[in-house]
Every structure is written in structure tokens, then in C-alpha cells.
Q: What sequence folds into this?
């Protein structure tokens, strides 16, 4: 079981879109997937075409001591999503207090699930520091930091470096982390400059891209992931390359490849 946390320091970078796309691409390439949504906004299910607004989920199941399997949504054979679920404000605060006092909550509950060894767990998280991010980082084998090629996003990366250093790199079982520049536009000088600067600053880590592609928005409007909407799109090809990166580097500690996507050398 490989656990991949998809994180970001700020909102609006397309993190849930990347989480859903990676999950579907892993599934379509023969890997069973479990999606974990740790975001109170319940965004992951929407990016996968699930619209159950009376949503039970991990939050309420945990508070009531129920088996997580009772709240799983099988969206496709081989792909199950455990949503955050809908809770009132009082219960949300109780749930977050519980997570803060039980740092191994996510890891322990994942180990209890009857998952086949080939399963990849994709963990979607809310942006910025939170108890949800702490749980995801503490459980993850691999972390992918999603960012944009702009100054505001670039300024947040040192914060993510510190969080990963605190929660991940001290663990012997941690495999490493990478930076994914989403909505990358290779025709813009700023995008190319940010990409090159990140690679120069972090030569030991993977820094790659998912290119800007209108098909991603179109797919969401149709209730589909880009994987099932347009297999000829640039974004889909980039997502497949990231799936290959996850697969290749899931057994190598602190793996570092400077260019996971050939297009990112623009």
C-alpha cells in the first residue's frame, strides 16, 4: 500500500483536481485506488462526478466509532473514495480536536482496512497548515506539493519544506517529495522563470508540471476527470507521466528526479 499525500500551502492551485486525476489515471493503468478526502469542503468527490449531498463520511464515522467501510463510495471498480462527510460546526471542532490529540489516527485506521497490497492511497488535504495536513504528512510515503507558477505560490514553498521536514523526512519509511506546478503555461516568461528557479533551488527534488489545458475545466463541467474526458489532452499526458513517477519511485527512499515530465523543459 502506497500512501501519496497531495498538499498545497495555499488554495486555488487545483489540488483536488490533481488528486482526482491521479487517482483515475492510476486506476486506468491497473492500480487499485483508495481516495481519502481530508478536506471539510468535500471537494474530491465532486471532481470524480459524485454528487451525494447527504454525505456520510470519515468525520462522523470517527466520532461515532463506526467502521470506515460503512462510508466508502465505490465510484468505479477498483476505486473507492472515503469522503470527509457533512458535519455541523460543533462536530467539526470535536473531530479536529480528536485529530490533534491522536497523531496516528490516519495511519492506524488505514492499516485496519482490508486493502490489497497494490493499492495506492491518494490523500487530498485542505490548503495550508492544519490538523488534516499533519495527519496526511505523518501517514504519507510520498508527498506531492501542488503549486502555481506565480510569485504568491512560490513564496509559500519554504513553509511546506519546513512542514515536510518536521513530519516526514525524519521517518525511515518516507520515500520523498516532489513539486508539481499546475496549470503551467510554457509560453509565458514568468512560468518558465519560476520553474527554472524551483529546479535551481531544489536540485535534489523532482519539479515537474501539469500544463494549462482548457479540457480540464470542460471535464469538470461534464462531471468527469480529465482521464475519462480527453485522452489526447496535454494535461492527461502530464498526469500519466506523474503516475509513472509515483510508480517508479514508490520503493526508493528520498527519490529525486529533476524532470518527470518532458514538456517541462520549455
A:
Amino acid at each position: 500500500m502506497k500512501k501519496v499525500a497531495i498538499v498545497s500551502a495555499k488554495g486555488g492551485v487545483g489540488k483536488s483536481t490533481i488528486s482526482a486525476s491521479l487517482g483515475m489515471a492510476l486506476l486506468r493503468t491497473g492500480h487499485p485506488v483508495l481516495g481519502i478526502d481530508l478536506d471539510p469542503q468535500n471537494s474530491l468527490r465532486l471532481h470524480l462526478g459524485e454528487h451525494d449531498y447527504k454525505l456520510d463520511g470519515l468525520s462522523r464515522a470517527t466520532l461515532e466509532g463506526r467502521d470506515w467501510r460503512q462510508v466508502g463510495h465505490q465510484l468505479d471498480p477498483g476505486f473507492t473514495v472515503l469522503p470527509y462527510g457533512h458535519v455541523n460546526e460543533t462536530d467539526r471542532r470535536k473531530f479536529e480536536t480528536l485529530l490533534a490529540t491522536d497523531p496516528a489516527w490516519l495511519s492506524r485506521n488505514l492499516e485496519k482496512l482490508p486493502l490489497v497490497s497494490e493499492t495506492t492511497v491518494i490523500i487530498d488535504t485542505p490548503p495550508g497548515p492544519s490538523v488534516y495536513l499533519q495527519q496526511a504528512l505523518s501517514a504519507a510515503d510520498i508527498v506531492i506539493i501542488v503549486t502555481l507558477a506565480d510569485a504568491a505560490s512560490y513564496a509559500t514553498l519554504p513553509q511546506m519544506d519546513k512542514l515536510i521536514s518536521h513530519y516526514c523526512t525524519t521517518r525511515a519509511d518516507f520515500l520523498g517529495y516532489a513539486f508539481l506546478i499546475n496549470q503551467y503555461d510554457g509560453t509565458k516568461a514568468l512560468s518558465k522563470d519560476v520553474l527554472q528557479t524551483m529546479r535551481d533551488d531544489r536540485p535534489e527534488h523532482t519539479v515537474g508540471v501539469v500544463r494549462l489545458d482548457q479540457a480540464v475545466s470542460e471535464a469538470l463541467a461534464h462531471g468527469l476527470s480529465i482521464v475519462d474526458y480527453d485522452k489526447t489532452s496535454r494535461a492527461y499526458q502530464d498526469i500519466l507521466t506523474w503516475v509513472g513517477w509515483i510508480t517508479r519511485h514508490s520503493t526508493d527512499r528520498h527519490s529525486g528526479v529533476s524532470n518527470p515530465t518532458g514538456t517541462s523543459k520549455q
The chain has eleven helices and eight strands. The domain at 2-265 is CATH 3.40.50.300 (Rossmann fold). Residues 151-167 form the longest helix (17 residues). The first strand starts at residue 2 and ends at 7.
